[in-house]
Amino acid sequence: MELLKTQTCPYCANEVEDAYAQWEDDSHIVECEACGIEYRVQPIYEFKGFEIQKLCVSCGEFDDDCCCE
Ligand SMILES: [Zn+2]
Ligand SMILES: [Zn+2]
Question: How far is the CA of 60 from the centre of ligand 2 (A)?
Answer without folding.
Answer: 6
